[in-house]
Automatic annotation (TrEMBL):
Its main location: membrane. It is a multi-pass membrane protein. This is TLC domain-containing protein. The keyword Transmembrane applies. Residues 28-219 form the TLC domain. SMART domains: TLC. GO terms for cellular component: membrane. Keywords: Membrane, Transmembrane, Transmembrane helix. The chain crosses the membrane at residues 6-25, 37-54, 74-93, 157-177, 197-215.
Length: 242
């Protein structure tokens, strides 16, 4: 556990150092811009490592839950744990996130700590990290597009659609299948299964928010299309009258 603690401290220090360097070299963009760059880097790094773990190194999380942690799984979890502690502290200090996101970070931190302390179920934790972070670059791209004034464009539409589709597929469909495999398997401990249920419920909380966003956006697009159609009809009628 001592080596794990040192690893977490080193990773936390690394993320803080990266953020500090970005603020010093890119200070004109503001704190949130630089924090989101760190978030984007962590998302890409976490997806790459956990994808290799799941698809190359193994074992397959759907068939072998509750197995002993491998060195690469431990590395991936330590890196992400350091990041989540950094981001949690940043969000609390700057008060940029609501209670749902803070709960997500808290559960992520506790889940990784639990998996590291038990020395098992690292495969499931890495799969959760993969499913959670694979939509992260799209979420950050959406924010950056807004800041640059390019969100209301075809690129912004594509980012939103891809984010929603990927979230539903990875967090709800694939996540639900993995939770089912976790619950029916005799290997994972009961507390790990409870953590899995809690994370899946939280995914549905996010899903409700995303559904509301998609509904509002579709209604707004429909009203805009309807107004444009009516305006075009009025102009056509006026033209014929003249």
């Amino acid at each position: 556990m001592t080596s794990l603690s040192v690893g977490v401290v080193l990773c936390l220090t690394g993320w803080i150092t990266l953020y500090t360097l970005l603020c010093n070299t890119n200070g004109s963009r503001g704190s949130e811009w630089n924090c989101r760059l760190v978030t984007l880097l962590h998302g890409i790094l976490a997806v790459c490592i956990t994808a290799y773990i799941g698809y190359v190194e193994g074992p397959w999380p759907f068939t072998h839950p509750g197995t002993k942690n491998t060195p690469l799984q431990i590395t991936a979890m330590v890196i992400s744990l350091g990041y989540f502690i950094f981001d949690m502290g940043w969000c609390v200090y700057f008060r940029t996130e609501g209670p749902v996101m803070l709960v997500h970070h808290t559960m992520s931190i506790l889940g990784i700590l639990l998996t590291l302390s038990l020395g098992e179920s690292g495969m499931e934790s890495c799969a959760v990290i993969f499913a959670s972070e694979i939509t992260n670059p799209l979420l950050q791209a959406r924010w950056f597009l807004r800041q640059l004034g390019r969100y209301e464009s075809l690129t912004g539409e594509a980012v939103d659609v891809l984010f929603v589709v990927l979230f539903v597929f990875m967090r709800i469909v694939v996540g639900g299948r993995m939770l089912y495999c976790e619950l029916i398997s005799p290997r994972p401990r009961f507390i790990i299964k409870c953590e899995g249920v809690a994370m899946y419920v939280l995914s549905w909380v996010f899903m409700v928010d995303i559904g509301r966003f998609a509904y509002r956006k579709s209604q707004s697009k429909y009203r805009r299309w309807r107004d444009q159609h009516r305006l075009a009809a009025v102009k056509e009628h006026d033209g014929k009258t003249d």
